[in-house]
Amino acid sequence: MTAGIDMGQGAGGGRAMLDLEELLATRLLVQGNSGSGKSHLLRRLLEQSAGWVQQVIIDPEGDFVTLSDRYGHVVVEGDRTEAELLGIAARVRQHRVSCVLSLEGLDAEDQMRIAGLFLNGLFDADRDFWYPVLVVVDEAQLFAPAASGEVADEVRRLSLGAMTNLMCRGRKRGLAGVIATQRLAKLAKNVAAEASNFLMGRTFLDIDMARAADLLGLDRRQAEMFRDLPRGNFVALGPAMSRRPLKVEIGTVETSARSSSPKLMPLPEANIDAADLILTPDPAEFARPVTRYIAPAPRPSTDILAELSRPREEGAPQEIAESRPRRAEMSAEERQEQIDAALADVLSGPDASFRTDAELYQDFLVRCRIRRVTGTAFSLADFRHRLAVVRSGADEAMQATDAWQKTLTLSHAVTDDLKAVFLMLAVAAINGAPCPSDAAIARAYGTHSARRARRFLSYFEEQGLIVLHQDRRGYRIAAFPDLETETAPGNPDAEEPVAKPAAE
């Protein structure tokens, strides 16, 4: 059965239908200047498909929260901790609940960080919950910028990596990206290029018209048509709508945004002089206290867990305080030993390689509390770095070398989820060991797919980090030009040895 979504009226007077099943497999890009009707188009798409497929909307302005009243979308406010966002994202996929992640009122850096975490949570869901989801990202140029801006590099990498995962690798996980942007020139090319369906609205800048024309296969003279498109009219192309460019007038919607375009209103009639009205202060203003509200910064979950783990001695009765056994203070060496032991316990589990970093981190914090390690051991970002180092197989001697420090610098060019794979290859090259097999690379990433492992290697090669070649037997060799070394030949099809259980 084909799910046809009525998007409005086509150029020939017929209905412009969108094949929802094809859209889930091929993704959609919407482009248009402010006021061209992008939000109206997205709302039409969401309303028409609400009964067919689960929906997740990344909403930077809070425009789509009104869908909750009519269609039951759960509104998720963005001012939450990392652990909360990852947990909510996992439960959204598990229970197949449509939701709106509202980022209204947050600054650009917080919006990018929260959207990146939430999208990664959807992406990292268990395989059992890979149901189809329509993931709509409005103002996508904010979350996948083509150039670095004023936000921190770490936040930009997080957000851009999450958007890249959504558009490039999300299809196998059931995630169908629908991204809308005001400026194609400001949107990262590797994100925009993964869409196979396009709806191009009114735009005026030459660079945006040129990119839109290239995506639609039009010449530069035909690109001038984008300047003349009325509000709510788009040119559609793609397997989900039309094999040839088709002009579409988007139909009406049943819900509306909380905000609307400003309307012209007549000015009030002033009976007194306007200067006196503005410049004469009200006596009550001098008695009114000046208050400035400063929004408290959200506390990370690690700080809350650290506070809960500390003993509460303040304010306790003297006899109770004296009766409590005193805990021996840990030295720095003992504390580090307990942290290393907790980390080793977490990674010793049989399924540790296939659990998300967030799950392992929460397990690690609990084990630190059990071992009476007070305070924050290290943040989630540091924990992910340690995981990557442990999974790479680098020992303490190697970590003290200059080659390892250079390897860490090179690893900044890849996303956090691929660092373990990159470092493992680099360790093999530095030691002159055979190139890891597809099975070993897949396990370092946390998957069983050998095909995905080969895609990782192709990605590293495209980034200029490695050069792959083969010997006469067809064994794979990974050369690192920046490290001036390469791995020994390794069989890519070799099976990973099964770990035997320890003898009791």
From TrEMBL:
Keywords: ATP-binding, Nucleotide-binding. Residues 309-329, 484-504 are annotated as: Disordered. The keyword Nucleotide-binding applies. Residues 15-71 form the Helicase HerA central domain. GO terms for molecular function: ATP binding. The keyword ATP-binding applies. It comes from the Bacteria. InterPro entries: ATPase_Atu1862_pred (IPR014588), HerA-like (IPR008571), HerA_central (IPR002789), P-loop_NTPase (IPR027417). Gene3D superfamilies: P-loop containing nucleotide triphosphate hydrolases. It holds the Pfam family DUF87. This is ATP-binding protein. It comes from Rhizobium alvei. The lineage of its organism: Bacteria, Pseudomonadati, Pseudomonadota, Alphaproteobacteria, Hyphomicrobiales.
